[in-house]
Amino acid sequence: PNAKEEILLDENALAEGKPYFNLGALEVSEDHRWIAYAVDFDGSEKYRIYFKNLVTGELSPEVIDGASTSLEWANDNRTVFYTLLDEHERPDRLMRHVVGENPAKDALIYKEPDPQFFVYCSKSRSRRYIFLDIVGKITSETRFVDADRPTDEFRIIEPRRRGVEYSVSHHSDRFFIVTNDTVQNFRLVEAPVSNPGAANWKEILRGSSELFIESCESFRNHLVVHVREKGLPRLR
Fold it and tell me: Which residues does the chain have with pLDDT short of 50?
């Protein structure tokens, strides 16, 4: 508690002499030895990703251009997933990078051909899984990979169906899923990680004309559900 303060990233220094600066993302590796961060220097919303060694204070030599603000570390503390923009500045590709290697050799994990969908990546609060979220206005699809095995193939939780949206949270051997597949105001279901498709969804809480289910968050011993009851926001 009495140690000297350490500045991990000084945005003022990075912005010095630049016409514009925005830090779009900053993620710390699981061993706290690296940060990956994305910056926009001209307001174009096209970000450059850098990797900083927190032990030495030095930057890794590679820079990734044309990225969005979505990036996550795998648990090996070397692998980073990130998304790239297409010519219309839509995040359409999920890539896998190893710190210290040439970005030209990065693996293309997924490319979304439908211009109605945007691609994002996220990590479960449990730190166990990397999610690939493919999101449209009224339709979504989520894929996942074990964060300890970043070179494995991503698995689909439930293939997209027009008009069906869902979001996923992980706990232990289960996924908790908020979806509007059978009810307009959404419902909360659970499914085993080993076989998470809709055929195995078990309902926990169902929306109604007075209850709208927005999202859920998994903690070690609790599940928090964000809802609106008669229009008012509440936590369960």
Answer: none
Query: Is-contact 25 38, C-beta < 8 A?
Result: yes
In the DSSP assignment, the letter for residue 9 is: -
Among residues 131, 127, 33, the alpha carbon closest in space to that of 83 is found at: 131
Structural Rg of the chain based on CA atoms: 19
* Three-state SS at 123: strand
Contacts of 114 (CB under 8 A, 6+ apart): 136
> d(Cα 203, Cα 51) in Å, to the nearest integer?
42
- Both tokens of 206, joined, read 């169902």
Q: How far apart are the first and last CA of the chain?
A: 35
In angstroms, the Cα distances linking 166 to 74, 81, 140, 194 are: 23, 22, 6, 18
pTM of the prediction? Answer: 0.95
Q: Cβ(231)–Cβ(215) under 8 Å?
A: no
132 close to 119: Cβ distance less than 8 angstroms: yes
DSSP 8-state class, residue 59: B
